[in-house]
């Protein structure tokens, strides 16, 4: 079946099965490999992208559900105001270790700050609890989110 | 970031052999042993004389390449898996080469004996050895290149070398104000002879080492451009999902080929005797195709094995004496005479690595050679695996090493690469073969289960009089590098037990080898020390409490011959405010250890609520790893290592039922998540005069004992079995 | 002992639907296995949700083996592929009808009443045999279902004679003359094929259906909710659109997703039914007299004030970690309708039956967007944690005070 996907502002037409998750379309068909596969069952958050500004798990988001919506991936997050702030905060705090989870972490943090400019610790906990970092960068992620949120005025 | 002893390896034909050394240095009569020291290999040599001769590229040694366009490339022999080694190694080279980190680019090393890690004994990233092994040789590599560049400039200008100096990739002649970039000197530098003697900068003159530059690998990790092995895209490439027999030792008996091939996007179904791979245009086709092809298995001899049986057998095996690792004095007699005596059993579970990037290998196998794109901690072994699987000559196989999405020891094994090669050789096109998360957990090679019996006695003064520790488990060394075995002793199985920071006059440490059925064992972050330090530090804590001594003061008393131990203990006591009053339900636990040539003392504050919920409040860790190259990198590794270890201590165990692993994904192999992470403060108290230590595994080693001791302090419950979380809870019925 | 309102069925009336057939003669000529019959048989097979019970665990084959744990022991579903030894390959048409109607299998073996023959007895010959025709087109699989494990006296199959006498009236569906064709179609689908009452009507002491038809009850740990026209407890508060969506997709806006056995009924049966048939079922359900029993579901009601705050905080923290990845903190469901919690019965039941079941054993449902599923969370989370998360979920999303104990997760 043909589906129209709007990814990072560009419309792509893909001919795939209707139950195909967006994750594999991004990675294997469109070559956008910044979005990662970690678990495939919405437990790790490595595959997080934005759909109409909301963080979603692309490993479970079917093409049927994604079609027609605005999808943003890690490759384009620097073009958003908050996204680039988050990336900078991540570098300033030296959050990243292996980096495999970090596309998802940055997407989740960006979505949080787009909704709540100055999140509390609890709001950070709730928004970031779905993103596993096996390297254990949590202590720095917390700091980096606070840093990014304090940059804006 | 995984340790092993230096070793020799037979059969690979890769390396010069070296004896495994467990050098013992008895200090101050305390029985304290220094674990290992192996001198570095002579790494400074021109690898390709021809390149140097052509003059377009200056290649003074295996690690540095400078072109006439002034591009400076550093070749990384160690894999970057998050530990920051690309940055650390670059700092060593840049310091002596006199270039800025902003001026360099980085390339992963190919398979070549020039890139052997001398501590590890092969081309390998593991054993927290990378910085230790690079500390001298890579600075020498940078210095000798700099000397050649300066010599070339001096010659050109006709001035003495001593009047010239290098800085930020340029050579200066201060008296005349003349300047030449390294690029401009490529041709002449190539004609200089490689210096036989180099003098390294002294620590006061360091401008890079000891600073906190921005990490070199992280920018690309913020925007999705970093290439992990799983991200490889080769023109014409197909993608496959592998499933191996759910029970080790079983075989594939059949599958529904028609149903599998009927799935849209599936291009081929391949089999091995014990595994099946469905190849598709994309991973989704491969996933669906594998489901549809419904493989059937003969589970073989392990079809009935369960963890309960494995443990029962280990327990029986632990009744008999094992191979002696250490024996001093008369342990049995002193135990009998001891004033206070404790006999305990500790158990540590099988553990999966669960790195976030699942196992994957991309291969293109042709009749005359092959390319392999993979993230591996052992590129030489990877190449050999592919050679063995395909019959190709190793020299015809190019291994392109990639960023690794978490290693933790998993990618010290290359069996998965061999498996992938046996599939890939059946097709002509390049193919990326991926394990799903479920495959990655169930088919992992696990950290061994350990069953430890330990007895210790105190004399009237409250000092240890006797210590008997018998550990029973799998010998990873025996499979992974059999030559490392020492007359039946796996040195890894007793690392952290044979040598402790403490004065123990009568000590007997034994190892009973018992290999589990249905499980392959492997290195896991922190290796021997992660196992033994938990047992030893729990026991020390138990002894302190049962003799009414403060656990921290007790450790100081026992380790008084170790000035660096006292230093880290004092520092952590101060930082963690050891004697402060704590709220109800809170407890502080301390752990001291010396692993990977690093001293660490850790204090953890945990709270247990009335309904059994464990909260990790705060961790303080004082670290002395000798000289420090990249301080923030050290802090990050200790923070991450602690979370890795705490995750294990709270939640993790792999169990088997009917030969199959019961855990499959993160909902049943639980990971610590952000809200649970404690505040972690790392306090660096380096000793610039000491030997340089490893850091990647230190935090992991400290985690379980510090937590167990804190939980005891909080609740009076001594935890002797990992994981802990399920041992707390109310019995609200 | 059929619900009283069924007893009023009198003369039949005729209507046409894709596979309607109760108008056909109750006896007489048996239909030949034409392609059309087989196709209709397949539709009826789905409407009767045979696959729901007879699919083997971890497989898509109808070889049985699925265990049913009942108060009196464990019963295993049988192999219904046309294998001659282990399946139904030897059944004649007459034997088939006897089995479906009287619960007497081949060779005079009494079936246990897990098999809803007390409902299937209402099927007319043509439909009953169409199902058989369809089953006979499947590939036979030789797989013996496990032995049932029952406690005395239930392990005595002959005792079922007594039960049958009490609970099973051997009679065909007779349409009600005073009702519309659609209502009659709905009644036939609901009572005979869908056997909805088997789960949704409370059982008597002899495991027969009680008179409180469709008042909702607990079966094998799962709560089958109230389907009567009660405004608060039943379906009167549901719009036709919500019911239609729920029955054909397993999800309705502001009502949450189906889980457990209901998800299976949707997956194997209901989602294949024509919109007309779904409409007929709704028409019929609307006519069921109200019974006030069972939990009341609301969308995000005010939380109870007396919650144990420490337990609640713990539950919330766990929910953030283990659950919100799919369900979101506000229960709206991340990206998938089937992950919506707000408004669902499962989070409004103060005894948390279905919540406990889902946490224990997971749930999955095939939708036209692919499979949606939730895994079991028992292995990595402690009973205390699962109890805390349950109590939090029901307080937060259902507005009710619960005291789910960790013992629920230790079974
Ligand atoms: S890959 Fe999607 S949440 Fe883990
Ligand atoms: S940085 Fe490695 S998993 Fe998060």
UniProtKB/TrEMBL annotation, chain A:
Stored InterPro entries: 2Fe-2S-bd (IPR002888), 2Fe-2S-bd_dom_sf (IPR036884), 2Fe-2S_ferredoxin-like_sf (IPR036010), 2Fe-2S_ferredoxin-type (IPR001041), 2Fe2S_fd_BS (IPR006058), Beta-grasp_dom_sf (IPR012675), Diverse_Oxidoreductases (IPR051452)
PROSITE patterns: 2FE2S_FER_1, 2FE2S_FER_2
Keywords: 2Fe-2S, Iron, Iron-sulfur, Metal-binding, Oxidoreductase
Domain 2Fe-2S ferredoxin-type residues, every copy: 1-77
Keyword Transit peptide: no
Pfam families: Fer2, Fer2_2
GO MF, any single term: 2 iron, 2 sulfur cluster binding
Organism encoding this protein: Acetobacter indonesiensis
Name the UniProt record assigns to this protein: Aldehyde dehydrogenase small subunit
Bilayer-crossing regions: none
UniProtKB/TrEMBL annotation, chain C:
Listed Gene3D superfamilies: Cytochrome c-like domain
Listed Pfam families: Cytochrom_C (PF00034)
Signal peptide interval: 1-25
InterPro entries per record: Cyt_c-like_dom, Cyt_c-like_dom_sf, Cytochrome_c-type_DH, Membr-bd_ADH_cyt_c
Primary location recorded for the protein, binned into one broad class: membrane
UniProt protein name: Alcohol dehydrogenase
Binding site for heme c 2: 196, 199-200
Annotated binding of heme c 1, by residue: 50, 53-54
Gene Ontology CC annotations of this record: plasma membrane
Domain of life of the organism encoding this protein: Bacteria
């Amino acid at each position: 079946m043909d589906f129209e996907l709007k990814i990072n502002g560009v419309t792509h037409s893909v001919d795939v099965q209707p139950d195909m998750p967006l994750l594999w379309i991004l990675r294997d068909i469109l070559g956008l490999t910044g979005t990662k596969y970690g678990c495939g069952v919405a437990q790790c958050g490595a595959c997080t992208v934005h759909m109409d500004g909301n963080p979603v798990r692309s490993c479970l988001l079917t093409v049927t559900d994604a079609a027609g919506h605005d999808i943003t991936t890690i490759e384009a997050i620097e073009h958003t105001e908050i996204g680039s702030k988050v990336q900078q905060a991540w570098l300033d705090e030296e959050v990243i270790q292996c980096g495999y989870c970090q596309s998802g972490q940055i997407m989740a943090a960006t979505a949080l700050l787009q909704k709540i400019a100055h999140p509390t610790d609890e709001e950070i906990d709730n928004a970031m609890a779905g993103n596993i970092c096996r390297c254990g960068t949590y202590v720095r992620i917390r700091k980096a989110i606070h840093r990014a949120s304090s940059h804006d005025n | 970031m995984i340790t092993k002893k230096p070793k020799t390896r037979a059969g690979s034909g890769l390396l010069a052999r070296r004896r495994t050394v467990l050098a013992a240095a008895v200090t101050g009569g305390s029985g304290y042993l220094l674990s290992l020291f192996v001198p570095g290999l002579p790494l400074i040599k021109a690898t390709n004389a021809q390149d140097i001769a052509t003059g377009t590229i200056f290649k003074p040694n295996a690690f540095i390449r400078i072109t006439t366009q002034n591009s400076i490339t550093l070749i990384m022999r160690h894999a970057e898996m998050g530990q920051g080694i690309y940055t650390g190694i670059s700092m060593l080279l840049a310091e002596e080469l006199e270039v800025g980190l902003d001026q360099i680019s980085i390339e992963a090393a190919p398979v070549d004996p020039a890139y052997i890690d001398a501590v590890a004994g092969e081309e390998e990233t593991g054993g927290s050895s990378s910085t230790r092994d690079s500390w001298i040789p890579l600075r020498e590599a940078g210095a000798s290149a700099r000397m050649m560049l300066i010599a070339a400039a001096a010659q050109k200008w006709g001035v003495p070398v001593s009047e010239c100096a290098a800085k930020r990739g340029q050579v200066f002649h201060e008296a005349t104000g003349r300047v030449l970039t390294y690029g401009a000197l490529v041709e002449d530098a190539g004609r200089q002879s490689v210096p036989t003697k180099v003098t390294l900068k002294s620590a006061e003159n360091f401008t890079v080492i000891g600073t906190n530059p921005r990490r070199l690998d992280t920018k690309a990790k913020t925007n999705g451009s970093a290439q992990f092995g799983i991200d490889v895209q080769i023109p014409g490439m197909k993608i496959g999902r592998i499933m191996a027999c759910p029970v080790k030792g079983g075989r594939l008996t059949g599958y529904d080929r028609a149903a599998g091939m009927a799935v849209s996007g599936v291009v081929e179904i391949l089999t091995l005797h014990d595994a099946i791979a469905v190849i598709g245009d994309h991973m989704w086709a491969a996933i669906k195709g594998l489901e549809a092809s419904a493989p059937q298995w003969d589970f073989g001899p392990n079809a009935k094995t369960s963890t309960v049986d494995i443990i029962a057998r280990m327990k029986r095996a632990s009744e008999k004496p094992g191979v002696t690792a250490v024996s001093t004095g008369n342990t049995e007699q002193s135990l009998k005479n001891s004033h206070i005596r404790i006999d305990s059993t500790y158990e540590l579970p099988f553990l999966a690595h669960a790195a976030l990037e699942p196992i994957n290998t991309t291969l293109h196998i042709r009749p005359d050679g092959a390319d392999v794109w993979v993230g591996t901690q052992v590129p030489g072994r990877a190449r050999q695996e592919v050679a063995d699987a395909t019959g190709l000559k190793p020299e015809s196989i190019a291994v392109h090493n990639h960023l690794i999405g978490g290693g933790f020891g998993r990618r010290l094994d290359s069996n998965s690469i061999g498996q992938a090669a046996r599939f890939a050789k059946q097709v002509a096109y390049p193919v990326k073969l991926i394990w799903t998360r479920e495959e990655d957990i169930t088919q992992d090679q696990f950290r061994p289960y350990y069953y430890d019996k330990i007895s210790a006695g105190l004399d009237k003064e409250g000092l240890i009089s006797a210590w008997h520790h018998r550990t029973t488990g799998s010998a990873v060394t025996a499979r992974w590098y059999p030559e490392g075995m020492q007359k039946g002793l796996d040195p890894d199985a007793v690392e952290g037990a044979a040598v402790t920071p403490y004065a123990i006059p009568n000590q007997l440490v034994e190892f009973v080898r018992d290999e589990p059925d249905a499980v392959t064992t492997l290195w896991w972050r922190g290796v021997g020390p992660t196992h033994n330090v938990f047992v030893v530090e729990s026991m020390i804590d138990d002894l302190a409490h049962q003799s009414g001594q403060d656990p921290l003061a007790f450790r100081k008393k026992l380790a008084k011959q170790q000035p660096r131990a006292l230093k880290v203990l004092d520092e952590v006591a101060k930082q963690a405010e050891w004697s402060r009053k704590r709220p109800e339900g809170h407890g502080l636990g301390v752990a001291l250890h010396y692993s990977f040539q690093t001293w660490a003392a850790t204090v953890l504050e945990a709270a247990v609520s009335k309904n059994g919920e464990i909260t990790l409040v705060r961790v303080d860790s004082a670290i002395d790893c000798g000289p420090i190259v990249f301080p923030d990198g050290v802090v990050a590794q200790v923070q991450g290592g602690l979370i890795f270890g705490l995750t294990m201590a709270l939640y993790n165990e792999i169990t088997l039922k009917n030969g199959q692993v019961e855990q499959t994904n993160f909902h049943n192999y639980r990971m610590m998540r952000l809200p649970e992470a404690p505040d972690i403060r790392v306090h660096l108290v380096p000793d610039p005069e000491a030997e340089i230590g490893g850091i990647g595994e230190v935090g992991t080693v400290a985690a379980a004992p510090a937590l167990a001791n804190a939980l005891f302090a909080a609740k009076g419950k001594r935890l002797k079995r990992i994981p802990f979380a399920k041992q707390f809870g109310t019995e609200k019925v | 002992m059929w619900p009283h309102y069924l007893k009023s069925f009198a003369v039949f009336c005729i209507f046409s639907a894709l596979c309607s057939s109760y108008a056909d003669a109750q006896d007489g000529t048996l239909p030949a296995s034409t392609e059309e019959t087989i196709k209709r048989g397949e539709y009826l097979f789905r409407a009767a949700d045979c696959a729901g019970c007879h699919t083997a665990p971890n497989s898509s084959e109808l070889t049985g083996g699925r265990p049913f744990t009942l108060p009196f022991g464990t019963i295993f579903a049988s192999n219904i592929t046309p294998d001659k030894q282990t399946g139904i390959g030897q059944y004649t048409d007459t034997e088939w009808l006897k089995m479906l109607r009287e619960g007497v299998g081949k060779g005079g073996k009494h079936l246990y009443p897990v098999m809803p023959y007390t409902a299937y007895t209402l099927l007319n010959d043509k439909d009953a045999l169409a199902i058989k025709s369809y089953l006979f087109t499947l590939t036979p699989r030789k797989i013996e279902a496990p032995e049932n494990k029952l406690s005395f006296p239930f392990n005595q199959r002959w005792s079922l004679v007594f039960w049958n006498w009490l609970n099973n009236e051997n009679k065909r569906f007779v349409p009600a003359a005073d009702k519309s064709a659609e209502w009659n179609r709905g009644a036939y689908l609901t009572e005979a094929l869908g056997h909805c009452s088997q789960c949704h009507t409370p059982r008597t002491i002899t495991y027969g259906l009680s008179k409180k038809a469709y008042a909702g009850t607990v079966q094998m740990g799962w709560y089958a909710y109230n389907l009567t026209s009660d405004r608060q407890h039943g379906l009167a508060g549901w719009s036709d659109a919500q019911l239609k969506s729920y029955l054909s997709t397993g999800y309705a806006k502001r009502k949450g997703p189906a889980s457990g056995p209901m998800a299976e009924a949707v997956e194997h049966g209901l989602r294949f039914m024509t919109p007309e048939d779904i409409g007929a079922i709704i028409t019929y359900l609307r006519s069921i007299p109200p019974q006030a029993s069972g939990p009341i579901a609301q969308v995000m009601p005010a939380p109870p004030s007396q919650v144990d705050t420490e337990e609640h905080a713990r539950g919330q923290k766990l929910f953030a970690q283990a659950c919100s990845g799919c369900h979101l903190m506000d229960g709206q469901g991340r990206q998938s309708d089937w992950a919506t919690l707000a408004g669902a019965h499962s989070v409004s039941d103060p005894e948390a039956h279905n919540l406990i079941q889902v946490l224990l054993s997971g749930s999955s449902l095939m939708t036209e967007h692919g499979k949606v599923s939730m895994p079991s969370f028992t292995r990595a989370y402690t009973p205390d944690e699962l109890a805390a998360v349950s109590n939090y979920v029901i307080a937060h999303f259902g507005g009710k005070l619960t005291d789910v104990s960790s013992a629920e997760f230790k079974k």
